[in-house]
Amino acid sequence: MIRTPALSRRTLAFGLAAAPFAGLLSASPAAAALSSADQALVDRAVAYLEDLTQAKGTFVQTDPRGVTTQGEIYLKRPGKARFAYAAPSGLLVVSDGSLVSVANSKLKTFESYPLGATPLSLFLAKQIRLDRGVQVTRVNRLADGFSITARDGKKEAEGQITLSFSNSPLKLAGWTISDAQGQATRVRLTRLDRVASLDDSLFVLKDPRNLRPGRGRM
Fold it and tell me: What values do phi and psi take at 47, rounded to 5?
């Protein structure tokens, strides 16, 4: 990973899953009101996400340099998610409902951020409101689905995320987030299946540096 301050941990950790909105692309000008057809797609996406209570699958992430990583994803709404990157990445990203924690076993780092300050909060919330606090700036129709681009509607934090959905059946296909230089990190869900029950232990991540008595902090 790039060894610039905080870039590897914040910008490249699961498509900016742990990056505060303030670190993303500057907000675009206010968007015009959505057409009725666009609003219908937004409503369809919201209904789908709110019904997606528990799921697991796999993903492929492509960073701005074109480097790809892959791993497993677990979702338990509201608030909980786990992204386990395959070796040799060393990254594990977990949301416990309040905090998003990022552990990097290769760099021996551990950081946490409030869930509400990360893009994950957009689709992990109990009630997904794309008309309050989040502004939809664009709805695009794709060959096999559609995408929705949103940013902070209050303009207190700058950022942009694009959620992509496939049709027949409707599924979350992935998302794209841009950094401060306009470079995109893309996450593609290669599989996402609904499940009946996920163990809560999947969504607990403690700082490993505090679990080693007699050793100093790394």
Answer: -60, -40
